């Protein structure tokens, strides 16, 4: 059967099942349709525009069978299966990127709140220089000093380019001065919950007299404000991790199903059981258009997940397979319960350099830069170079294995700037404090990449 | 012989001016009894006068009589109730760009509802080329889809009787022997339109799960085929039917008559018609005469076998 006919017949089936149901069943119906439409569009058997149009028509058909229910109209607003890739401004050709562990803590105690700025790594490309960072902001007096402070940087001249703008919980007056005396304004790009912020400080030359690419020659940076500063040694070498990349050799349908299933674990904090009906609907769809073999390993794993979550659907017909150890670890260790927030009696955050660069796969290069534990939460920082889709429906999926052999997944959030997506990932379940090394597994659509990386804990 | 000969006339009311006017479907055409000279009213509207709502409805109808979007959103059977309120339409209209919601289209042919299908996309209503070029293609496409959806909703708001009659017009527009190539290029949409409407009829006929029913468009001589395989949960019904079945049979409420599946209409008519019907899967179709006893849901005739 051709893909468009399958999708349209599925729409007819969903419409019959709907029969004036509430918004939940509308979400179920459109969720299954979007999943199948995405499967066809991403495996190249259906034009994305046609897939969108079919989903769009079904959504309209469902809405007009729910008269007077404003909730249904609300749920109908998000219609499209096409994702918007981010980071599209990457120049063509090989990307020259430098990632150097920074490992510095800047303690700011002079404002209305206490702030600790954890500087993980200096990242530079021909178009961008930045410092990946995490910022802890607490009420005045909450953060005791942890080390001796260097004096502040001289008054900026000329004044800061973007003065007066700052995200809550992030210092807005930071600068950096390199070894030649050149000055840079630090502008934060990332996410914040008001207490803990993660992202990157972009270095903007002030005055603008040099391209960011000059950053690749830095040997040290002084970072701070007029009261406090910290020196970052950018000549220190860090132990490099050996990376292996293994193409998975799968056909397009199997690749799609595998990465979508992995992504269920690595995205969001909702019960993965809610994702399974839509995922299960893609199995017969891909088979119907000849993209999935009868003995599909991914289909059997989806069947196993459906059995575990008591998802009963007529399209789950494959015999369940044994779950991979990493999935089982996550499912038994708490898949969506990230560790609790830090409380006053917790030890101060600990940060480690984690320096791993994975080779480009599926147009995406991943660089890991740091790890931070705070209370019972673990955050991993890093950078994506290349196109990446909102919600990471096709990965990358990053798994960590601690010294005790337990697996943890990285739930990623990222922010795009200058063709670079700096990310901070919640490691779930949180890593035990101070491991000496982690094994890393990155699953992308076409390949698996593995590394064993030493962790250098640098916080005082 | 026309597909609509088996259908009685149907009226609906449309708010127009300060009152409410009758819009009538009769013999395949939409007519406006309260606007006997609609063409003149269009000329006045072009000169700056107000366009009566009835006239605007008829224009919209004319633009969609070959629009497969009607089949994607419209009713599949009489139990499948599609309900669109005018308040909802107004709400959506206010969300459109002002130039689109005020109606920049100029389409003539008010009282005629005949076929006029074009290549995909089936219609490009309300978006002048100057505007389309001024907007980015992505924005223009989004606006075109919104306007298209809004027009469909306006037509579906005319009520169940006219929903079935518009669906019949669309199917008839695609059923002609001169459109085989176009049908081939839109085969997935036509297959789904057939399956979505035949499956409930098959359920009524055999009690089969509609999800076990698939239909593919039939081309060439003959009425097509209906084949049942398997038993229990493995029971399947596969049919091939011409697109014209939707207009001649389904849109006229003739799909199942007294336990027979009607596969073709030999002589359309109302209140009497002659059809070919299957008493059971695998049997040969038999000619039967049917007569309409009364108007049922959607102003579709309720048919009984005469002999």
Secondary-structure map with pairings?
The complex is a heterodimer of chains A (460) and B (307).
Chain A: H1 3-18, H2 23-42, H3 48-63, H4 70-75, E1 85-86, E2 98-108, E3 113-125, E4 128-139, E5 150-151, E6 175-178, E7 183-192, E8 196-205, E9 220-224, E10 228-233, E11 243-247, H5 252-266, H6 276-288, H7 297-308, H8 325-333, E12 350-357, E13 364-374, E14 377-386, E15 388-389, E16 397-401, E17 407-417, E18 420-428, E19 437-443, E20 447-454, E21 456-457
Antiparallel strand pairs in A: 1-15, 2-3, 3-4, 4-8, 5-10, 6-7, 6-9, 7-8, 9-10, 11-20, 12-13, 12-21, 13-14, 14-18, 16-17, 16-19, 17-18, 19-20
Chain B: E1 10-16, E2 19-26, E3 29-31, H1 38-46, H2 53-63, H3 68-73, H4 86-94, H5 98-101, H6 129-134, H7 137-156, H8 160-175, H9 180-185, H10 187-206, E4 213-217, E5 225-229, E6 236-241, H11 244-248, E7 256-257, E8 260-267, E9 272-278, E10 286-295, E11 301-305
Parallel strand pairs in B: 4-6
Antiparallel strand pairs in B: 1-2, 2-3, 5-6, 7-8, 8-9, 9-10, 10-11
Helix pairs in contact in B: 4-7
Major sheet: arrangement of strands of chain B: 7-8-9-10-11
Strand content of chain A: 25-35%
Largest sheet of chain A: 10 strands, antiparallel
Shape of chain A: elongated
Q: Can you write the helix and strand succession of chain A as a string?
A: HHHHEEEEEEEEEEEHHHHEEEEEEEEEE
The averaged pLDDT of chain A comes out at 83
Order of secondary-structure elements of chain B: EEEHHHHHHHHHHEEEHEEEEE
What proportion strand of chain B?
15-25%
Low-confidence stretches of chain A: 78-84
Instruction: Give the helix tally of chain B.
Output: 11
- Can you give the mean pLDDT of chain B? 86
* Tertiary shape of chain B: globular
Let me know the largest β-sheet of chain B. 5 strands, antiparallel
Counted beta strands of chain B = 11
Please report the distance between the alpha carbons of the first and last residues of chain A: 63 Å
């Amino acid at each position: 059967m051709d893909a468009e006919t399958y999708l349209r017949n599925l729409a007819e089936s969903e419409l019959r099942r709907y029969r004036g149901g509430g918004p939940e069943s509308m979400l179920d119906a459109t969720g299954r349709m979007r999943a199948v439409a995405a499967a066809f569009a991403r495996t190249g058997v259906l034009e994305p525009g046609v897939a969108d149009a079919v989903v769009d028509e079904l959504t309209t058909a469902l809405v007009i069978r729910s008269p007077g229910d404003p909730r249904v109209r609300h749920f109908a607003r998000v219609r499209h299966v096409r994702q918007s890739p981010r980071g599209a401004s990457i120049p063509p050709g090989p990307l020259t990127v430098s990632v150097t562990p920074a490992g510095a803590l800047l303690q700011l105690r002079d404002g209305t709140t206490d702030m600790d700025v954890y500087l993980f790594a200096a990242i530079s490309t021909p178009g961008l220089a930045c410092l990946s960072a995490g910022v802890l902001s607490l009420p005045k007096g909450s953060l005791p000093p942890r080390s001796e402070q260097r004096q502040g940087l001289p008054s900026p001249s000329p004044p800061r380019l973007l003065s007066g703008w700052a995200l809550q919980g992030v210092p807005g007056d930071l600068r950096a001065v390199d070894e030649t005396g050149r000055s840079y304004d630090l502008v934060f790009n990332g996410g914040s919950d008001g207490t803990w912020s993660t992202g990157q400080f972009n270095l903007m030359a002030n005055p603008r007299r040099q391209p960011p690419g000059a950053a690749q020659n830095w040997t040290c940076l002084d970072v701070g404000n007029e009261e406090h500063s910290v020196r970052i040694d950018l000549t220190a070498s860090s132990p490099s991790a050996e990376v292996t990349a293994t193409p998975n050799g799968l056909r397009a349908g199997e690749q799609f199903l595998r990465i979508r299933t992995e992504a269920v674990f690595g995205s969001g904090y909702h019960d993965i059981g809610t994702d399974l009906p839509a995922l299960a609907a893609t199995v017969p769809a891909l088979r119907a258009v000849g993209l999935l073999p009868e003995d599909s390993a991914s289909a059997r794993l989806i069947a196993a997940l459906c059995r575990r979550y008591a998802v009963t659907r007529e399209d789950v017909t494959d015999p369940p397979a044994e779950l991979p150890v990493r999935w089982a670890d996550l499912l038994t260790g708490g898949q969506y319960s990230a560790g609790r927030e830090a409380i006053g009696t917790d030890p101060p955050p600990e940060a480690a350099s984690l320096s791993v660069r994975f080779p480009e796969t599926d147009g995406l290069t991943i660089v890991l830069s740091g790890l931070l534990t705070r209370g019972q939460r673990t955050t991993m920082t890093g950078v994506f170079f290349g196109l990446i889709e909102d919600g990471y429906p096709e990965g990358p999926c990053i798994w960590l294995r601690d010294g005790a052999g337990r697996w943890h997944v990285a739930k990623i959030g990222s922010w795009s700037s200058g063709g670079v997506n700096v990310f901070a990932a919640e490691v779930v379940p949180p890593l035990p404090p101070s491991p000496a090394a982690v094994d890393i597994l990155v699953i992308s659509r076409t390949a698996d990449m593995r590394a064993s990386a030493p962790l250098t804990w640098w916080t005082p | 012989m026309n597909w609509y000969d088996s259908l009685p006339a149907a009226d609906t009311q449309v708010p127009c001016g300060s009152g409410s006017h009758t819009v009538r479907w009769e013999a395949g055409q939409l007519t406006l009894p309260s606007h006997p000279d609609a063409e003149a009213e269009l000329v006045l509207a072009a000169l700056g006068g107000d366009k009566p709502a009835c006239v605007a409805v008829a224009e919209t109808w004319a633009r969609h009589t070959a629009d497969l979007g009607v089949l994607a959103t419209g009713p599949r059977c009489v139990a499948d109730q599609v309900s669109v309120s005018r308040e909802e339409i107004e709400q959506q209209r206010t969300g459109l760009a002002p130039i689109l919601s005020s109606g920049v289209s100029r389409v003539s042919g008010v009282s005629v509802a005949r076929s006029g299908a074009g290549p995909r996309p089936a219609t490009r209503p309300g978006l002048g080329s100057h505007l389309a070029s001024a907007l980015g293609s992505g924005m223009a496409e989004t606006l075109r889809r919104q306007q298209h959806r809004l027009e469909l909703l306006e037509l579906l708001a005319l009520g169940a009787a006219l929903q079935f009659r518009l669906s019949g017009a669309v199917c008839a527009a695609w059923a002609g022997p001169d459109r085989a190539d176009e049908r081939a290029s839109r085969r997935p949409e036509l297959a789904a339109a057939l399956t979505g409407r035949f499956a409930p009829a098959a359920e009524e006929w055999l009690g089969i799960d509609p999800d076990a029913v698939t239909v593919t468009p039939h081309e060439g001589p003959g009425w097509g085929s209906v084949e049942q395989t398997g038993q229990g949960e493995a029971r399947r019904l596969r049919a091939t039917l011409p697109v014209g079945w939707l207009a001649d049979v389904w849109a006229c409420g003739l799909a199942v008559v007294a336990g027979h599946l009607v596969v073709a209409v030999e002589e359309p008519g109302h209140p009497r018609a002659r059809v070919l019907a299957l008493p059971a899967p695998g049997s040969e179709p038999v000619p039967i005469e049917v007569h309409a006893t009364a108007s049922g849901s959607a102003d579709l005739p309720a048919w009984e076998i005469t002999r």
